[in-house]
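A brief tutorial aside. Many learners find it easier to grasp structure tokens once they have seen a single protein encoded end to end. The record that follows does exactly this for S-locus receptor kinase C-terminal domain-containing protein. Read the sequence first, then the structure, and try to relate runs of similar tokens to stretches of the chain.
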Amino acid sequence: MCHECIHIALLCLQDHPKDRPTISQIVYMLSYDHDLPAPKQSMFTNVLNCNKRLVPSDYVFSLNEATQSTMEGR
């Protein structure tokens, strides 16, 4: 049951609202034993092929054009 709850939680975290299940679909998923749909890959998931050797000109510092800033005091 724990595995199913985590799987449903991943479905609820889809990037696009149309890809997320409705409350009635969630209740159905929790009530009946059946195969759950696979969640789509999140836009925050970075996948890098470790087998490819990069040369300095190939370095990619942002795979999804997202940046993260940290505020620090002086």
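Self-check: The chain has one domain: 2-54. If you spotted this yourself, you are ready for the next section.
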